[in-house]
Amino acid sequence: MVGANTVILTILLTLCAVLVIFLIVVSVKLIYTVDKTNVILDDVEKKLKSVDGVFNAIDTVSDAVTTVSETVVGKALLMIERLFKKEK
């Protein structure tokens, strides 16, 4: 009985050692993968900031064009209203 307990204990300790080594290897690979992902995300964030400036410029130009077109249309409508009021 003592021999069987020793064999089972040896097998369990060996399996635990293998499990610990496996977990260490997986952890190291996971840390390496997370580091690579952080580098990629930093690069994407930097590129998005540069594109964000372009979109802000487009938005500003769009707002200016909208303001000008609203002013032109407003004045044109005012002139048309004045023309029709004078005829009556």
Distance between the termini: 120 Å
Report helical residue fraction.
Answer: over 70%
Estimated share of beta-strand residues? under 5%
Could you spell the SSE succession in H and E letters?
H
Radius of gyration: 37 Å
In DSSP terms, counting alpha (H) and pi (I) runs of 4 or more, how many helices?
Answer: 1
Oligomer: single chain
- Based on helices, strands and strand pairing, what is the structural class? mainly alpha
Task: Give the helix/strand layout.
Blueprint: H1 2-87
Overview of the molecule:
The chain has one helix at 2-87. With 88 residues, the chain is an all-alpha fold. The chain starts with a helix and ends with a helix.
Short description:
The protein is 98% helix and 0% strand. With 88 residues, it is mainly alpha-helical.
Note the main attributes of this structure.
98% helix
